[in-house]
Amino acid sequence: MLRIIDARTGEPVVAAPVRRGLTRVEAHASGYGTGSLRVLLVADLVARVLELGGTSVLPVLTGEREQAELRTAATTLGVRPFEDARDLSGGFGEAQAVHVAGADSAATAGESVWVPVGAVRPDALAGPDPDPAALRLALLSHHHRAPAALDAAALHEAATTLARWRRAVAHWARSPSRPVPDDLRGRLRTAWDDDLDLPAVLGVLRSVEEAGPPLPDGARFETYAYADRLLGLELTRDVGAAA
């Protein structure tokens, strides 16, 4: 069950204590920039974790400026579509809500959970278009509450890591499938349920990559595929491609 730091109190809380019914995950973002894009990405990750735990989710976007441009950039980054808050004034009977906003935004009092998202420097969307998958991995490499430094070196490192992992996954896929080992599944779920600790999730994948021969390649493949249900990095994209 996802426990996350609430921006109102600085204390960990259960993001969606009611498992039945609908949870509204609302991203508060305006303007076309990497900071706003990161808010949408974190909101999408919150929604994915809740869904992996069996909670139904309604993703919603609230904002006033450059929403079309922001939505397009989010889609390119692999963020799933959000409903427009202006079209949902009547609500859908959701039992609870999780709000995701920039760390400098004021959290509204009430029972809803507020998730703070750190700033991004420099704005990666202000220059030449970065590779979307590399940008996504670079953002995932920072805890969502911490500022993210996205200079050219960080984006290059992310692109290199992503290419290496995709090659490895394609190679492991040629071996007989094996289930995700229980300890690895537990480490992954513990990481993403603990304040959405994506750097720790990536750390588990690095440990799988570096593990010795006792870990079958089929289990490595299934572990990466399982984690990618949250990460959304298309790690299995090159499976079956010509070597």
What does this structure look like?
The mean pLDDT is 91. Helix 3 crosses helix 4 (152-172). Helix content is 41%, strand content 16%. By secondary structure, the protein is an alpha/beta fold. It has a five-stranded parallel beta sheet with strand order 5-4-3-6-7, covered by helices on one side. Strands 1-2 form a two-stranded antiparallel sheet.
Distance between the termini: 40 Å
Strand order of the largest sheet: 5-4-3-6-7
| Main beta sheet strand tally, sense and closure | 5 strands, parallel
Low-confidence stretches: none
Radius of gyration: 18 Å
Defining traits:
7 helices, Cysteinyl-tRNA synthetase, 243 residues, 9 strands, two-stranded antiparallel ribbon, five-stranded parallel β-sheet, alpha/beta
List the topology elements:
Blueprint lengths: L2 E3 L6 E3 L7 E7 L5 H19 L3 E7 L4 H10 L6 E2 L11 E7 L10 E5 L2 E2 L10 H9 L7 E2 L2 H21 L9 H12 L4 H13 L6 H15 L12
Parallel strand pairs: 3-4, 3-6, 4-5, 6-7, 8-9
Antiparallel strand pairs: 1-2
Short description:
This is Cysteinyl-tRNA synthetase. The protein is α/β, with parallel strands linked by helices.
